[in-house]
Design goal:
By secondary structure, the chain is an alpha+beta fold. The protein folds into two domains: 55 residues, no CATH class; 146 residues, Mannose-Binding Protein A, Chain A (Roll). It is 16% helix and 16% strand. β1 and β2 form a beta hairpin.
């Protein structure tokens, strides 16, 4: 190999002008991290750093002054959650007692999860009350006992839970059937609070009339109105009847609000009620 004066001889295997490549600092850090992760040193380092955050040790178990970590289920351990004596009771009453029960002689519509109740039989009438049980009377009686006159939808919806009045060929196991021949075998039905009108116009729902002595507004120059009799219970305003219909519930026409009919009351569950059938 010839040598040019003033120049270094070229080494075999290295191209002229090539530079030696050295690993960068970032590459060195990455390689060190890789070695640590494969040897378990990274986990140890992580725990060493996290073992004291702000001077508080980290622990998987409850410790005074320590930072508690979540478990594998992403929840705190049960031992870390404080308990309260009699936590299942409020004021000495259980959740079931606070939820309330049905009044006596009623049943929960919808079963134990139902939020309201209905009488198991129609409202009992005395001999003196016979014939008085029209819509107004029934509404007042239900209010007096702390309930309400149920709507047609409530009665139909309760047909699978309550033995509603029904036709003589319905099942006595699921309906109330009139089988007393001394009083005549009759198909029965029940009154609901749902109202319909059989005529059009404002008078179809009743009228308070115009009282004797009523006058017009003199500031507006109104003439005195003509007296008219009141009609609070028109024949055109009628309540919807419902019957059991073989445990399915059904509609049985309508009757004027002044006409008497069987009815039963509905109630909200109360915390003070004691129903033997549910206890």
């Amino acid at each position: 190999m010839s040598r040019v004066p003033g120049r270094r001889p070229l080494r075999a295997g290295r191209p002229r002008g090539a530079r030696r490549l050295l690993p960068s600092p970032a590459m060195i850090v990455a390689l060190v991290a890789l070695v640590f992760s494969t040897t378990g040193l990274a986990d140890a380092a992580r725990h060493a750093v996290a073992s004291a955050i702000g001077g508080h040790p980290v622990s998987s178990k409850p410790r005074a002054g320590a930072i508690l970590t979540l478990g594998k289920n992403k929840k705190f351990p049960a031992a870390a959650i404080p308990t309260v004596a009699n936590a299942k009771e409020v004021g000495g009453k259980t959740a079931a007692q606070l939820e309330g029960t049905c009044p006596p002689d009623t049943i929960s519509v919808g079963g134990g999860t139902g939020s309201w109740c209905m009488e198991t039989t129609v409202y009992p009438l005395t001999n003196a009350d016979e014939g008085k049980n029209n819509y107004v009377w029934a509404s007042k009686k239900c209010e007096e006992v702390g309930g309400w006159l149920p709507s047609a939808s409530e009665l139909v919806g309760a047909a699978s839970w309550i033995k509603l009045e029904s036709v003589i060929h319905d099942s006595q196991l699921t309906a109330t059937v009139n089988l007393d021949p001394t009083r005549g075998l009759k198909d029965e039905r029940e009154m609901s609070s749902t109202l319909v009108t059989t005529e059009a116009g404002s008078q179809a729902a009743g009228s308070e009339g115009v009282s004797e002595g009523a006058t017009g507004d003199p500031r507006q120059g109104q003439a005195n109105p003509v007296p008219l009799p009141a009609n609070p219970y028109p024949e055109s305003l009628q309540y919807v009847d419902v019957y059991d219909n073989f445990n399915k519930g059904g509609f049985a026409g309508s009757q004027p609000v002044i006409e008497p009919q069987n009815f039963r009351c509905a109630y909200n569950k109360t915390t003070n009620a004691i129903n033997k059938s549910e206890s």
